[in-house]
Amino acid sequence: MNGGSGGGRMAELEVMFDGSSLTKQRSVESVSSSVFDKLTDELLIETLIRLPIKPANLCKCVSIRFRSLISTSYFVRCYLNHHQINNSFALYYQSKPTFHNMIRPSLMGIDIAFGFPIFESPGFSLSFLASSDSEQQNQETFQYLASNNGLVLCCAAMRRPIVYFVCNPLTKQWISLPPPPSNVKTVYTGFICNPQYSCNDDRKTSFKVVRIEVVKCESPRQLSGTLKLEIFCSILGKWAEEYFMSSSNLDHELFYGWNYRCPSAVVCDGLLHWDTLSNCGIFTYDPYNGECRTIELPREIRKPLWALKYCLGESAGCLRYANFSWDDTNYRVWELKNGGESEWLLLHEVHLDEMKSTVETINKDCMGLLSPHPLDQDVVFFWCRSSCRIVEYNMRNKILKLPCFLRDMKIISLLSPMFFPFVLPCWPTTVPLIKQHDLS
Asked: Does 174 lie in the same domain as 77?
């Protein structure tokens, strides 16, 4: 944990979410027992499901009985049915270019767009990661790297050694990870989380962080036949190193140079997928079986040199690849089929002139692909460089429009902006406790 204040936060979280400190719980329990013990479990559940999601989750610290009821899958189902909650999402981006995509934690809330009020209160922020030292806090910056199942991976890249954090920006839970084996900053990163919502199961929420060092050389032929992966497992509480032996130059070319568009992996079907500037394909890693392979792109795809004209993403559990062809000025969207066995299905093809816009300031010639919509399989997000706006395109009606978000998304950048869809799970994901290490 980061500093003395971090230790205090961790102790508080242990009370609120893990129930490891029963002393404080019992003191609260003694006050509330006379009132709530008179209610049956059914009446208590009917009462608690009417609370907003964060207060309902925090009620776990009221008593052992509250924690037991709220942690059951039955309570979660009742809560979702009562509130008619579907997975909501937000888009984190950077409205202005910064050095190495650094952000100040207190300003993170400015660069998030959403259509769901839950992101307004208590707010989507990383300010709780800042140092307790006021002078350092004003200078501290972070990199937002990835998110999965409600948790976020970020790092304080300016520290030595590099410090990674895994946090829940809505519940304000966080942990710091021990330093990685190497202090290389330029890496491809992957983050995957398996949430566990019931305390009646022996399993706990777990996650893995994967780092792949970028090898700089004059040509792919100079690369060795081995890729080094550094992997942190929350269950083991430490980093491990794995080596992937390549049988061809295809995998080598994937990590030739550096692609600022995709330092983080796309998570789909329990696998990590990295796209690159290469024409070869998509590098895929299974973090649970330790297997690596390359998924070739469709033969019809030739990646444009301009990075704004293609993107890789996940939509409703499917891996998708979208690109723009300069030859015929068509946008195409592909989906990977058959469990990732390199079979791609062309879902959509549209000529630039066929795209109808409801926004006068949108110049279709200045649009760049950002990401598929994480929940709506008909929608793809674009960024219009001329108007500095994020727009969405519906593949069914071929209409371009501004997303229905609660705030305007204006991005001033010469390059394609950093863009991260954040999908909020139906129930808050708890950040698991790991063995703490000395970060000094």
From this structure: no
